[in-house]
Amino acid sequence: MTVPLDRHYLVELQVSAERVSQLRRIVAAHLRHWSLELHVRPVCRGVEELLTNVQRHVGDDNTCVLELRWSGRHLTVSVADSGAEMPRLLHEGGGLSRVMALSDSWGTCRTAEGKVVWFTRYAQEPQHIELVPLPPLPDVREFRRPPAVVTEFPAAAAAAPAGSDAAEPAHAPALV
């Protein structure tokens, strides 16, 4: 499957503390451009962990490559560097264990130049729902209760003596 150019980002950089924070902002901008706002925080934290690990274990002068790839369903983030030592999952809660917690899958791969560390997140393309204008809300006066209707008995019914047939409504059956 070919990824459209607007869903792929690649940058080669020398890792430093300043560059890590700058790359966080760049990654966040790309995710927002791709309408993946819900993924900005976890992906940026994962990118920060991977780049910090490169800085810590390979060195500040190392050049690495950060790549984002979004297929419309999955977002893959990878960092390639020239370090020979493969990363290990530690149980202290930092590094790769944090990346593991922020992602759906992750892994490492040795390359001819060093290694690649990557993680993925399920990131389906957001559905854009067309907004339809609603009719205006009714005025408050339309919600008022209508005045109660009081029906008066006809004058003949009121004047009829109790017990006579005239006092009963015409539609009611007569009692025997």
Question: Care to give the gist of this entry?
Answer:
The protein has 176 residues and is an alpha+beta fold. The chain has a five-stranded antiparallel β-sheet with strand order 1-2-3-5-4, with helices on one face. The mean pLDDT is 80.
Protein model, in words:
With 176 residues, the chain is α+β, with helices and mostly antiparallel strands. The protein is 27% helix and 21% strand. It has four helices and five strands; from the N terminus they run E-H-H-E-E-H-E-E-H. It has a five-stranded antiparallel beta sheet with strand order 1-2-3-5-4, covered by helices on one side. Strand 2 and strand 3 (74-81) form a beta hairpin. Helix 1 runs antiparallel to helix 2 (40-57) and helix 2 (40-57) runs antiparallel to helix 3. The longest helix is centred in the first third of the chain and has 18 residues, at 40-57.
What is the topological layout?
Layout: E1 8-14, H1 17-33, H2 40-57, E2 63-70, E3 74-81, H3 96-102, E4 105-110, E5 115-122, H4 155-159
Antiparallel strand pairs: 1-2, 2-3, 3-5, 4-5
Helix pairs in contact: 1-2, 2-3
User: What average pLDDT do the residues reach?
Assistant: 80
List SSEs in N-to-C order: EHHEEHEEH
Globular, elongated, flat, extended or rod-shaped: what is the shape?
elongated
Number of helices: 4
Secondary structure category: alpha+beta
What characteristics describe this protein?
176 residues; alpha+beta; 5-stranded antiparallel sheet; 4 helices
